[in-house]
Amino acid sequence: MRILLVGAGGVGGAFAAIAARRDFFERVVVADYDRARAEQAAAADSRYVSAQVDASDPASVTDLCRGHGITHVMNAVDPVFNMSIFAGAFAAGADYLDMAMSLSTPHPEAPYEKTGVKLGDEQFALAADWENAGRLALVGIGVEPGLSDVFARYAADHDFSEIDELGTRDGANLVVADDDGNEIFAPSFSMWTTIEECLNPPVVWENGQWHTTPPFSEPEVFDFPEGIGPVECVNVEHEEVLLMPRWVDCKRATFKYGLGDEFINILQVLHTLGLDRTEKVRVKGVEVSPRDVVAAVLPDPATVGPRMTGKTCAGLWVTGTGKDGRGNPTGPRSTYYYQVVDNEWSMREYGHQCVVWQTAVNPVIALELLAEGTWKGAGVLGPEAFDSVPFLDRLTEYGAPWGRREMSG
């Protein structure tokens, strides 16, 4: 297996550090628009080489694939570049993986009721091309989407005879401090992507169809495990809701994120001021995207690890009718499947903060399973299309095991 890693930022750098400890691949080409950043990530292993890439240009991706004999393209940049990387990989005859799907466009007349172009629609529209070519595009294989989708497959196969709701719930108690120990606002993940998913109309799967709601709707307090505790979570647009119902039968699917009042207020102010816009505006003779400016002035998520304390939790809350080992219904069941990663551990073990590490470990595992032939397929597929057990077993082997908590009520 010869991998082209597109993007050497927070998640890309963590991917490189995690993969360096494994032996399932022959070569990783670490590519970034910033060649120096690619070189830094590539220094993690002698099997790595660095390159420059323009992720917005499919030909740039194709040329790198052909020049290095790439078999798999790993997309680790913001999803605004998904379709160009997706196209570049296909043209080169390589398989493709990403951690966030092609972007959505709200419904023009009823954005908070009806879906417009949904997350992943552009990629799924090309599924037949990938399948006919015998190539695999494994989409949404980060942590959320990704691990949460693996949990959905596991719940359906092993614990539930009928599923009422697949509810992804994400929360943390992370704190970032300045040099004087004062808490500061510093997102632990790409601010560009966070703005995109939090301010777009959230999608809910219900009664066999998708619909939307206003941002930050249906607040609930969810009690996260391993000392994180209660966090208020709200509806956010996310890929799980668009992926899970395609492969797992459920009456409802939701995604709720523990943002907190401060973060929600900041996002609302950015929207009010138009600073969430991606369209470029002219400022003193220079054209810039307001959202790009916001992302640029905030601390780089790849650098906040040493200033961060706490844990992050990704998980899936499943409700419905349970089943026994023979597949017989056993009555009502409510189970939370989760993974918690402590920032102190990920910084000590890998030198990368917990949120980007937790995201990056999942595509490394997926690539290893593909290299072994344990996972195989063609077309545009989500993590739900594959056997969950080998993935979850490997997650424990990588040092961040998953957990399961039975819920009351």
Based on Cα principal axes, name the global outline.
globular
Query: Architecture of one domain, CATH level 2?
Result: 2-Layer Sandwich
Oligomer classification:
single chain
What's the number of helices? 14
CATH homology superfamily name of one domain:
Dihydrodipicolinate Reductase, domain 2
Identify the CATH class of one domain: Alpha Beta
User: In whole angstroms, how far apart are the ends?
Assistant: 47 Å
- Gyration radius, in Å: 20 Å
Can you summarize the main beta sheet? 9 strands, mixed
Total beta strands: 20
The low-confidence runs, each spanning 5 or more residues with pLDDT under 50, are none
Instruction: Classify the fold: give the CATH topology of one domain.
Output: Dihydrodipicolinate Reductase, domain 2
Strand content: 25-35%
Task: Describe the structure concisely.
The chain has 409 residues and is of the alpha/beta class. Helix content is 34%, strand content 27%. Strands 7, 9, 10, 11, 12, 13, 17, 18 and 20 form a 9-stranded mixed sheet that branches. The chain has a 7-stranded parallel sheet with strand order 3-2-1-4-5-6-19, with helices on both faces.
